[in-house]
Amino acid sequence: MKAKVEVQKLLIDLNAIDQNIRKIDHQKKNHPQLMKITELTARLPSIEASIVENDSQISETKKELSRAEVDVENIAKRVVKDNERLDSGETSAKDLTQIQHEIGTLKRKQKELEEVEISILEKIEDLEHKKSGMQEILTQVKDEISQLNTLIKNDFSKANSEISVFTTERNEVVSKIDEALIELYEKIRLEHGIGAGIFSHGTCSSCQIQISPAEISKINAIDPEEIIRCENCRCILVRN
Ligand SMILES: [Zn+2]
How far apart, in whole angstroms, are the C-alpha atoms of residue 77 and residue 83? Predict the structure, then answer.
């Protein structure tokens, strides 16, 4: 393939623009805050799952509380009933002793159940406390993510406008280069990252490999308009 020397030299400008775009892209992809966001976002599901699990424990414990309340209520009703029988004056001496005994047993039972009720209430309080702690963490993590996103958005929009300036510049350069040469340049750039380098002082600027004197004199003998490539990195060698 052949191309005018000044057209070949445009490949060096193109390469410089491409390297700038590549650098900005790399900075975007490796933005330190982006990693932090990924890390924080990965924490969200487990915090949310813990809140759901805690909520179901709260609802179970509340059911437990209702059952205990019903039990306490039933015993209280039985005590009232027994007391009514005592007050009726229609009970025999034998029944009287039995009822008094039953009232004693019921009151002990009522006290026990009330203690159970208190311990369930304490459990609910602990779970509610745990829930608000987890919700606070969730809010903090979400806030941090949103702050980082705002920060990143600013950096990205700055980077994108830089890329857009370089892209305009790139299009101008591309328009001045033969299509077949651009195709070759793009193919090499995709495969090796760098599409063209300067051949100067016996060195390829892309891979920095020093070319042997025998090779240099061979290169110098080639028609300057002939497209040559670096034997080492395969980029288009533009002779200086
Ligand atoms: Zn090279």
Answer: 10
Q: How far is the CA of 39 from the centre of ligand 1 (A)?
A: 39
pLDDT of 94 strictly over 90: no
Q: What's the length of the chain?
A: 240
Query: 234 CA distance to ligand 1 centroid (A)?
Result: 6
Measured on CA atoms in the order 97, 100, 101, 102, is the torsion positive or negative? Answer: positive
Cα first-last separation, the chain: 18
Beta-carbon neighbour count of residue 37 at 10 Å? Answer: 19
Q: How far is the CA of 14 from the centre of ligand 1 (A)?
A: 17
Residue type, 167: T
Span 187-208, pLDDT tens digits: 999 999 999 999 998 999 999 9
Distance 231 CA to ligand 1 centre (A): 7
pTM for this predicted structure: 0.67
Work out the mean pLDDT of the chain and round it to a whole number: 94
> 228 C-alpha vs ligand 1 centroid, how far in Å?
11
* Digit-coded pLDDT (tens) for 13-41: 999 999 999 999 999 999 999 989 999 99
Tell me which fold the domain 31-176 belongs to.
Answer: Helix Hairpins (1.10.287)
